[in-house]
Amino acid sequence: MRPLARLLRSAAVTRCASTSPTPAPAPTLICPAPPPAGFFQADGSRGTVEWDRRTPPMVWHPDYSVPWPSNHRFAMWKFDDLRLECVRSGLVPSERAFFSPRDEAGDEELDAAILAAHDATYVADVTTGTLEATLWRRVGFVQAPDHARLMRRTRLEVAGTLAAADLARTHGLCAHLAGGTHHAHRRYGAGYTIFNDLAVAALDHARRRLGPVVVVDLDVHQGDGTAEILAGERGITTWSMHCAENYPFGFNEKFAPYLGGDASTIDTGLPRGAGDAEVLAALDDVLPRLLDDVAPTLVLFDAGADAHAVDGLGHLELTDAGVRNRDEYVLRACADRGIPCVTVIGGGYDRDRERLARRHASVCWSAATIWRDYDLRSRGGA
């Protein structure tokens, strides 16, 4: 190489090296705190549940939260933050008061319940990590650091809603500190959800011939996956009240043609900016008549916190009081009619962790109010 060419090449290499962007540091992982002493026994099985009936039964598992990238849009840490908030605020004396789904390893009943709602090929592919990239991007968990732990917590979350349904049928009311994975469809996951716990629990109730079931979904986003899976299912009614100008609606047909075409039994689309008064008016217009007409033996209530005015992915304007009034309206309507109800927390994306935990805890406090007002502690066995 001639001297001039060598000099020019050297200058180019130096210039590229000096202008190349510095790689961004890897995001830190937010790890859940360990459960308290006594929550698990020495062999890893669950310790004694110390439920004193002062509050409705509540369901939580330490593995609902897994180590998760701090910059991920989905707040995987919120399940751990929620249980800490429930203890810190005095709602429960300790986490030992929570019921927990059993470990899902080899659980054939759980397998069958999931497969009743989801396509077998999809379940196998997402479980083994062989799901094609385009379908994995729909879920939104491409940053998942540990696939096996993600799938275990996904199955546990579904098992938790099933356990909460059993407790609600016995005691009249149960609060699940997770759940509401309503965007997962039969053949694909979406919107940070892999398996649809609401659809699984509804089908489980119906196929055990326990009577009609109603899904009341008040998350800010339409429960499109629940609508698709449960469409045409005898004895199951779905009602979604959501912002009509939000996911899954309004996406470009070229890039997301699968979004926005699913219909619940009843869909109530609220305009962007609707607040406390509009939400309560819509509840009053639909829910009493729905419960009276269907006479369900179970209600699955998605109390999404993302309908709050301060939420990163919602376009409604509910206040703290509005969320509490919304939730108590649903629970009181069920209690007035003697209908067992399961609450799940649904969406919530506030980046302020403490604020989000308090917001999700609101439905647990509402459940405690209804539990006391209707003296449900005297219902059911031990």
Please give a structural write-up.
- By secondary structure, this protein is an alpha/beta fold.
- The chain is built from 11 helices and 9 strands.
- It has helices at 3-19, 78-88, 108-117, 120-128, 133-139, 147-171, 197-207, 224-230, 276-294, 320-336, 353-373; strands at residues 29-30, 58-59, 68-69, 173-176, 213-217, 236-243, 266-270, 298-302, 341-344.
- The strands form 2 sheets. Strands 2-4-9-8-5-6-7 form a 7-stranded parallel beta sheet, sandwiched between helices. Strands 1-3 form a two-stranded antiparallel ribbon.
- α8 (224-230) links the parallel β5 and β6 (236-243).
- α3 crosses α7 (197-207).
- The longest helix is centred in the middle third of the chain and has 25 residues, at 147-171.
- The radius of gyration is 23 Å and the shape is globular.
- The relative contact order is 0.13.
Descriptive key words:
382 residues; 7-stranded parallel beta sheet; 11 helices; 40% helix; disordered N terminus
